[in-house]
Amino acid sequence: VAAVEGWRPRSADAQPAARVPTTELPGTAFDLRIGQTTVNFTGRDRMAYAVNGSIPGPTLRLREGDDVTIRATNALGTDEDASIHWQGILLPANMDGVPGLSFHGIHPGESYTYRFKVRQNGTYWYHSHSGFDEQKGLYGALVIDTAEPPPVKYDREHVILLSEWTDEDPREIFATL
After folding, report:
1. Partners of 35 in the beta sheet?
2. pLDDT digits (tens, 9 = 90+) for 52-70
3. How much is the pLDDT for 22?
4. I need a surface site. Which of 22, 60, 63, 151 has the fewest CB within 10 A?
5. Residue 111 in contact with residue 73, Cβ under 8 Å?
6. Which residues are registered as beta bridge partners of 47?
7. Residues contacting 93, CB < 8 A, separation 6+
8. What's the whole-number average pLDDT of the chain?
9. Whose CA is closest to 137, among 128, 145, 129?
10. CA 113, 122, 100: angle at the middle one, nearest 5?
């Protein structure tokens, strides 16, 4: 096995996170629950933010031309607002999911309904624009199929979503940048 610079094996005490595996949700109507879950990536239990119980959140599979409704509920159990931003997606400004710019955020215990027509295809991602929620686990993949049949044939598809984890408070990391 070749050594990779900067890579360290995780602690012998580290256990796989006891969480819901990431799923794929196809369709035009989605219910996303933003909540907390315990993870253990480094040998220490930590609180993380998950979508429908998983980190990353479920892969949402949309289709170009469809009208989509996504209801996101802030079930964090904190006094923090939540949000979901649809990275790179062409949509009305009030559906973009950026608190203070396109909407007020999703208040604790409340829901916000995103409604938009899917005007493109490709592979994108969604993530939080509230505080440091993205660094705490609030993100997922977004796959938009073409309206027409795929231009190429394939046997299988893999969505790869890279991220990193730290046990440090993301605010403390940001303060030292």
Report:
1. 50, 75
2. 999 999 999 999 999 999 9
3. 76
4. 151
5. yes
6. 38
7. 102
8. 88
9. 128
10. 35
Tokens of 87: 């990275």
Q: What pLDDT digit, counting tens, does each position of 81-119 carry?
A: 999 999 999 999 999 999 988 899 999 999 999 999 999
Contacts of 121 (CB under 8 A, 6+ apart): 64, 144, 145, 146, 147
Secondary structure (DSSP) of 8-29: -PPPTT-----SPPP-EEESSE
- Which residues are CB-contacts of 136 (< 8 A; sequence separation ≥ 6)? 47, 48, 49, 170
Tokens 């609030």 belong to which residue? Answer: 138
For residues 79 and 135, is the Cβ–Cβ distance under 8 A? no
Residues of the chain above pLDDT 90, percent: 73
Cβ neighbours for 117, distance < 8 A, ≥ 6 positions apart = 65, 66, 67, 68, 91
What residue has token string 């299988």?
Answer: 156
In this prediction the pTM is 0.85
Q: Which amino acid is at 95?
A: M
Which residue type sits at 7? W
Contact (Cβ atoms closer than 8 angstroms) between residue 26 and residue 66: no
Long-range CB pairs of 152-161, under 8 A, 24+ apart, other chains included: 159/59, 159/123, 161/56, 161/125
- Sheet containing strand 29-39, edge to edge, reads 46-51, 29-39, 67-75, 111-117
Name the token pair of 168: 């440090």
